[in-house]
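Changelog-adjacent note: as of this version, every example in the card shows the full chain rather than a window. The one below runs 545 residues end to end.
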Amino acid sequence: MSKLNRRNFIKKTSLSGAALASSSFFSSNAKSEEYQKSPFSDLDTLSTNDWWNRPENPIIDIKVERDNVIAFGIYTLSKNVLKLTAQLFPLYPDESRNIKFEIYESGKWNEVQKKEINEIGWSTTFKIENWDDTKNVRYRLRHGKNAEFEGKIRKNPIEKDIIKLAAFSCNSNKDRGDRQEYVKNINHIDPDILFFAGDQSYDHKEHTAAWLKFGMQFRDIFRERPCITIPDDHDIGQGNLWGENGKIASSPAGNDGGYFYHNEYVKMVERAQTSHLPDPFDNTPIEQGIGVYYTDLVYGNIDFAIIEDRKFKSGPKNKIPQQGPRPDHIRNPDYDPKSIDLDGLTLLGKRQHKFLSEWGKNQKKSIMKAVLSQTGFCGGAHLHGSEDNRLHADLDSNGWPQRGRNQALKLIKKANAVHIAGDQHLATVIHHGVDEYEDGPWAFLVPAMVNNYYSRWWWPKDGKPGKKSNNVLPWNGRYLDGFENKITMHAYANPDSNSNGAGFGVIKFDKPNKEVTFECWPRYQDLSLKKSEQFKGWPISVSLG
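Full-length structure tokens:
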């Protein structure tokens, strides 16, 4: 453990005595003037490695007033268990590493738990069992003398006929502005629960700063409603991810399978984004001691299976015949799809198959089901990045490996669930087929929040509608994707649509009628106005009765 002399600290930070006094940098609960060295180098300059001596962070101003050092809290509530993660801005060496969770009851604030903050990422998680979910409860987080963050734990809305989930994906750093248009619309809709499907961060090597930026953008919508967040490939620093049970990848491209960056960095990312989720179904770590988070969450009598569709997936390099300049891009439309659907290739893996199988067995009439993941289970985009870049098949999608895809879809269908994901920078509603068209589940891939980075298009090469088109859009109907998976396209929002195809999804679960409605809203629509319109093709309602 490296030591920092108090006098040297004051000298290095160039703070006057008056400034120190007014900002309350030093606490009576100080950690003996110590700071923790990061277990990784050339990664995440905020964790911790004398962050206070570094130049101003270009992503977010981290040298905040100490009364504002608690950035946000993010929580879930399921089966009478509350889990809430407190995220702080980086702390100075002489500040307390403790944070309190308090609730307001009987006219006063009462401390429930006190936890120590993890300096690698600056977060900690509270878990309270036997939580009374029949009432709204005010809570606050407290650090030091004056730092507070206040919110509300909502009661479990089991009495509501319709439960609303707002879903997001792909918060690109091509736009570092605030997200007030989203915050305004979400507060207007007032969903019961939120889902961020991944790529909350595009700053590959600076997750802590990017996560703080994300949290400050959206904290006013999740300070008082449950929120599910899961990391995707960009969050852990890779353009694509085939996790292959946690092996070490040879490059950031990751197409040989595994994780390229330090295992403790990956663990830090997952701790920040998933520690507030319900405990994992099976918490056995994968290789390198990297954890898992696949689990289920029940809220408002909607049972959400949260899966990890990248963590166990096989990488394509040196496993299948390469059909283009990259191991993961198939450019040759004449290749044989069976040549890449080989024995030994994995998508979700046996552990998650067991989870989905057991999860699907609960078929109570009062409960509806949905599977939440990072990306979709088919090749749902033809053009990548630009209109002149046609890709026959993308191995980053979960259309491959086909056998793994089909097994996953059968388990989702057997559970009578819909599938909700993001990642593709292209909103779509697809009815999957396995053996026959439409014998699988429905899937809604929500649009990117920012879609001026690597936009994608649904654009069949022959420019013709598929069989049984609904004629709402030019290219609806039955198609085979580049892996010869059967899909029926019902709606898509190409980047020439409103708001460049950027926006968010709202999924309404109508419990009495066993019906799910998919809504898809452009980023710059004002939903408080009657004239606001969804992307063309939406809304779409499907029956699960």
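Structural remarks: Helices lie at 6-13, 17-23, 180-189, 207-222, 263-274, 349-360, 402-414.
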